[in-house]
Amino acid sequence: MQMRFALVLLAGLVGLAGCPDNPYNAKTWTKKLGDPREAERAVTELEQLGDPSAIQALGDAWSDQGKPVRLLQVIISLARPLTPEEAKAKFATDYEKEGRKANWDAALPYLTKALTEVDEANPRSVDSASKAADALGEAKLDAGLDALIDIASKPVTKKLIQAQVGAIRAIGKYDNAKAKAAAALTKIVDREPPAHPKTAKDKEQGRALEEKFGLFLGVTGASINALGDLRVGSAAKTLALSMYRTPELFVQIRRALVATGPTAKDELRKILRGESAEVNQLFKDKRLDKYCGDKGDAPPDQCQPVSAKDFYPAVVLGDFYDPAATPDLLAALKRPAQAVYFMDDQPSPNTQYNAIFDALRKIGAADAAGPVRAIWMGGAPKGPAPKKGQPAPAAAPSEDLNTKILAISAYPFLTRDGAGTDELAKIAGDNKADDTLRQEAATAFARLSSDPKDLNVLEGLAQKYFDAAAAKKKEAEGKPKADSDAADKVFEAKKKEVDKAKSDLLRITHDNSKTAADIKQATADTKKIEDDFKEAKKVHKAATAPYKNLDNAVKAYKGYARMFQTHIARVEVGIRCKQELTCLAATLKMKPDEAAKNNGKYIKDIKDWTDDEKKGLVEAGVERAMLDIGKQGAKAASLTDTLLDAAKSDVRLVRQSVLLALPKIAKIPCANCEAKLDAAIRAGEGKTTLGDLNLETTMLRNYFSWAGGKTPTAEKPAEAPAPSE
Q1: CA distance 666 to 644
Q2: CA gyration radius for the chain?
Q3: What is the reported pLDDT for 382?
Q4: CA 408 to CA 440: how far, in whole Å?
């Protein structure tokens, strides 16, 4: 009887106290989302539990509470799939064995609502829209694409742009709905740009135009990047037109065009041939072939021709490494060299020829060797007439020095027979020739020669500069050095005098025994000494200038001598390796001392070289080796992985040389080119000195992405063309 009473009493007490909720059950916390005192903890507990069944309750609370970003972030977190490993790392114990499947469908209503009901006056709402856009891009739900397109297509405003850019990025991830996604992005890119800030009449208008133009570039640039991610051939024409509508975004456009693939390449060739009706009409309507002042209001007879129409497609065509583009590039060289653009009435430092020769260098087609040789040699190219189907030699442009320099620079990457090597040696040794021309000729000569006798040319050039340095040093060591030393002594005495005056003045100003008159007099005395010192500086500079000028000349001459000696390392590789692939590839692992040993028989003073100078020998040897490997084309395919690994190099010349060789030897499709080039890009991130080379690495990665690899697209060609042997 007593036992029964005790049990009844215990049951009653439990009933009065209430059965405690299970803290590991999502329902325990979802019912507290509306309680201001419990809501924050409830959200945290639901996030930690990781149970997707809470998504609807969280979504309703998000709507009722003014759409706070925190709640939407938890909804997105619960909607994501988890692998067992990820669940274990997040302590989501219910999913450690089998993982958690995606629950994006449950989150979809709230993600789309965040986009369609965005209030640009409410920063929290815009932030929620941005988070929702990112989530939809990750989920790639068909039902969410319309909401993304809707917000991306709205007029651009400063308050909304964050969410719009997020939506555009997300659209670019919809490779499961490419046609619809690309069509939406194309419409955004096709928008007419607002007035350019440089056309402003005054500063106030300039600020307004600058803000509007900046917003336009932000949304347009994001759309161009997204089109590049989609790799849709139908976007090629729009992207090509955007090179001229928004040249400020050319880097993004270039990346997107190469990722787009062969359709873009064909479009660019049409532009270069003058066969693109859309581009021709744009140039006619906007007068893009002329610069008529920043505001476009200069009289017609004062307008300057520009070459943007040829420059931009030529740059990108080089990124496709297709010899079929060679005739179009050579034909473009028949047009006069012109500035690409003007800024503040000043012409660009480069012309379209810079882009054309660079593209020819990257493509490396042997068919271009004769025409390019004709440009720097003058007259018709030597050698046999072109075979049937090969491009005819380009008519040599005017004897413009810069054109000859560019042609010489590109030539070693084109020729297979080395014709013109003797002529390059003559230019390099011509004391009356332009210094830049001579240096480029010497470099080209060293990239081509494999004859031990040719080393005499480089040794002779180096010795000329060593002799010149010795002569200048002898001249400097006479009266100029004596005058400079004497001037240094006088100057040092003056410097000590002014330093003492400043120290004395400081002491006097802190001496309580000194009167205001004492301080004033000391200040005046110090001022006079400082004025005298200024004059002493001028006298000292004039007196030491002759010696310093001679000493600088000595250093410059020695620098030129070392440059010619370093070229010997290029020829040395040609002599030693004799085109043998294993030997050429071994240069990538060559150490400075090894390079010095290889060149010791040719460079007399190698024992005096610094470690940095020896590194220059390594770089020169690698460049020559990669050039020779690239010319062997498919025969060197076995070295693809070796070169891909070397593409991570922080040494500019090494990476540059590897990037030029890779597309010429790699078989298409290349199974691991994308992954290894991605690793090279990551290795170069944040290194400002490699910024432009990281871009070139990205361009090569994009080339391999459409040409094959692990992410082929429906528009992938059966086999990308290989450079001609």
Answers
A1: 10
A2: 35
A3: 40
A4: 7
**CA 306 to CA 354: how far, in whole Å?**
14
Q: Cβ of 291: how many Cβ atoms within 10 Å?
A: 23
Peptide bond into 669 cis (omega under 30): yes
Kindly tell me if the per-residue pLDDT of 274 is higher than 70. Answer: yes
Task: Please give the single-letter amino acid code of residue 399.
Answer: E
Helices (H), 231-307: 236-245, 250-260, 262-273, 277-286
How far apart, in whole angstroms, are the C-alpha atoms of residue 226 and residue 181?
A: 9
Interval 11-32: pLDDT, tens: 444 444 444 578 889 999 999 9
Higher pLDDT, 725 or 486: 486
What is the tens place of the pLDDT at every residue in 44-74?
Answer: 999 999 999 999 999 999 999 988 999 999 9
The model carries a pTM of 0.84
Domain ranges of the chain: 1-101
Q: How far apart are CA 253 and CA 224, in angstroms?
A: 6
According to DSSP, the residues that pair with 342 across neighbouring strands are: 347
Tokens matching residue 612: 């940095």
Cα-flanking dihedrals φ and ψ of residue 143, to 5°?
-70, -15
Summarised one tens digit per residue, pLDDT across range 284-332 is 999 999 999 988 888 999 999 999 999 999 999 999 999 999 999 999 9
| SS3 assignment, position 489 | helix
Task: Evaluate whether 370 touches 406 at the Cβ level (below 8 Å).
Answer: no
* Cα first-last separation, the chain: 106
Quickly list DSSP for 425-468: HHHHT-TTS-HHHHHHHHHHHHHH---GGGHHHHHHHHHHHHHH
pLDDT at position 708, please? 59
Side-chain-facing half-sphere of 116: CA atoms under 13 Å: 11
Q: What is the residue type of 145?
A: L
- Closest by Cα among 243, 245, 266 to 255: 243
